[in-house]
Amino acid sequence: MYRIIKPIFFKFDPENVHYFVVKRLKWFNDKFPLGKTIIRSSFDVHIKGLEKEVFGIKFRNPVGLAAGFDKNGEYVEALNNLGFGFIEVGTVTPMPQPGNDKPRMFRLPNDEALINRMGFNNKGVDVMAERLRILKDNHPDIIVGGNIGKNKATPNEDAVSDYIKCFDRLFDVVDYFVVNVSSPNTPGLRELQEKEPLKKILNTLQLRNHKNDISRPILLKIAPDLTDVQLDDIIEIVAETKISGIIATNTTISRENLATEKILADEMGGLSGKPVKDRSTEVIKYLSEKSNKAFPIIGVGGIHSAQDAKEKLDAGACLVQLYTGFIYEGPGLIKEICKALVK
Ligand SMILES: Cc1cc2nc3c(=O)[nH]c(=O)nc-3n(C[C@H](O)[C@H](O)[C@H](O)COP(=O)(O)O)c2cc1C
């Protein structure tokens, strides 16, 4: 079915198609008589033996939706009904912000890839927190990750206060947190991946986290463009700050080995999909081996098939996430991966 619709979708601007589709999915799920039942019976994964407990959370299956797809936590229930084991919302910032000028998302069909320079467009953490509160009241079983960032206008020296604002506001309504310092689309953000600023952010969040009776797992999302030395620093930082794990990886700024014509490939932004697959797997393998499997890793980057997901798990990931593969392959990909994993 998706094979038939995809060429039509691919004729239109990717961001417009994205909102067109998710809005209709939500309407069908929430408003259409028997809509939920139809979505669930067509896509949801009812396979036993895929449950996994990672950082204290029980996941019904290991295939999650990566950050950036549902920036404001608007479509979580409908997306969950497609079969995902968990949904990561955001990146959200304390204040609403419009993101970069459009167009800011590009398809590279020859490489089964996307380039985006969205720039953390979102409605702000208050709007997200209120939405997720309602969701959690009605569906406490849906696993939601809160991916948090800083506003463009906030200088890096004050970044920690932005992460704290998002953390405090979302604490009661998400199951785990992701500190995003790896997006290439907020100027200077990736400098926060350096040892000192990163330790400051994570230590401050952990202090906050452990003041509460219950604490939430905090993960760090990293870029695929880090050097081995930087990855060694990451391993050290995880041990020192005692965060719960790593998400590897975000989009890449590299443009190596693309089949796409230069003018399109040279669009500014982060590249995702098939071209990032091997590097992302390499990063997972490096972290897993070098740290002696000291912490859980969520593997993301270029998963377009069950085999791609297996490669990430074999490299040391315990959960996986999809974004670009979900666009290119459609919602059937979730069940396809789950079926292959249970075998
Ligand atoms: C349009 C788009 C927007 C994204 N926005 C975010 C974001 O806000 N925060 C984030 O951590 N990652 C974001 N990502 C990165 C994805 O979560 C994922 O890490 C990356 O795309 C690699 O996975 P993929 O190859 O399966 O897409 C975005 C990716 C795309 C394609």
TrEMBL record:
PROSITE patterns: DHODEHASE_1, DHODEHASE_2. Keywords: Cell membrane, Flavoprotein, FMN, Membrane, Oxidoreductase, Pyrimidine biosynthesis. Binds 1 FMN per subunit. Pfam families: DHO_dh. It is found in: Cell membrane; Membrane. Monomer. This is Dihydroorotate dehydrogenase (quinone). It comes from Pedobacter mendelii.
